Amino acid sequence: MPENTAHSQDLVLDGFVIPAGAGQQPPGLLFDLTAVGNWLEPFRRKSPHTHRAYQRIAAYWLYFLEQTHGYHADLLLRAGPIDAHDFLRALTHEPLDAERSRNSAVLASGSGQFALARLAPAPFWQDHGPRALPNHFGVASNPFARAKSPRSVAQAIASLSSLYKFNNTKRSAQDQALLDFNPFSDLGRFIVKQDAKTDRVFEPNAYLRMLSATDRLLAQAETQTQQQRAIRLRWITVALFNLWMRISELSSLRMSDIRQRGGVWFASVHGKGRKVRAIEITPAVMQELMAYREALGLPALPQRQETDIPAVVSLRRSANHYPSMTPRALFGEVKDLGTAAADWLLESHPNPADLEVQSLAERLRQVSPHWFRHSGASEAINGHFPIADAAERLGHKDPAITVRMYYHGDAKRRVGALQALEQARQED
């Protein structure tokens, strides 16, 4: 067994590893697991996706603390503001204003309340190797190997802040709060603010480039597996952009969830909070699904009894077994496709002075699955698709969220309107 995984006698619980024998020790030895478990529990059934995301970032934080302080059962108690600042630096790969941030952290630490001993003079997180160091929290891949996006960093810090806030609260009059401080409370001013509306949107031309890339992959395929992957990549691209689904929703979608009612095809999607919504499927998208199904050796149209066949099938399948792709695997496929599309774009337009091509190639490299949801919905809304219908299709309870996150005014149209006003003034 690899050295960075737990011994066989250890107990793995929701991604966290309780060392063997811990159950025979005083309850205090499970302090971190208790605090994290209490925080996660409300999301277990209400929102499995949020539960997984919070669980993952908590494991990263505990992994960071273990590598910094050594393994203890109460790492959350030992963490201080300096740890939080260093964690932020590990996520971003960018140095903070070192003097300002460290002074702020030292002041927040008060009179030496927090143990700040380090195991090594060089921060472990500056090593960007792919494998995690040995740890007790089920972390196999180095979470700091690649810099996180500003949005991911902000979400991580907000999540961990909520972990401490949750455990700052007494559950009852008889209980004591598990944690009476929050090392992340001062970090907000050190996080780069991004415009939520422009961060994850690409133009329709980028979508067409990615479709062309799947066609090129298919044309170059030399094996059946490569052919199947290219056909699947095209379906993933079409589904994400046109159905506005989250990556977790596409991963969990089954063929039996796609049904026809009143002459219209729908996908019944289980979204956040286990809410179910129906997403209309156009004939063009159904044609793409039918092509994908036929490549799998299935009937062209989905069947009600196909409850064990996912809408996106892993390549590791057998004749009667159809495993689904995990969200992480889908993410990797989309990133690979964006990179391939960018490479081929630059290959066909080698002029480095063509700034428009260079910009499009950079956007293609940045693309992640959630960009498809934002971009497809934004294109429709800017094309006068009704906001109320868009909110329902996206799974938003409040249409104001849809307007704030997905409406992007057409700059060229605005400039044209302003120019028309200027011309009218001159004529007057």
From TrEMBL:
Upper taxonomic lineage: Bacteria, Pseudomonadati, Pseudomonadota, Betaproteobacteria, Burkholderiales
One GO biological process this protein is involved in is:
DNA integration
Q: Which InterPro entries match?
A: DNA_brk_join_enz (IPR011010), Integrase-like_cat_sf (IPR013762), Integrase_catalytic (IPR002104), Integrase_recombinase_N (IPR010998), Tyrosine_recombinase_XerCD (IPR050090)
Q: Which residues form the Tyr recombinase domain?
A: 203-419
Pfam families of this UniProt entry? Phage_integrase
Q: What is this protein called?
A: Site-specific integrase
GO MF terms held by the record: DNA binding
- Which keywords annotate this record? DNA integration, DNA recombination, DNA-binding
Which family does the entry's similarity section mention? Belongs to the 'phage' integrase family.
What is the native source organism of this protein?
A: Malikia spinosa
Task: Name the SUPFAM superfamilies on file.
Answer: DNA breaking-rejoining enzymes
Would the keyword Oxidoreductase be found if you checked this record's keyword annotation? no
Q: Could you tell me which PROSITE patterns the record lists for this protein?
A: TYR_RECOMBINASE
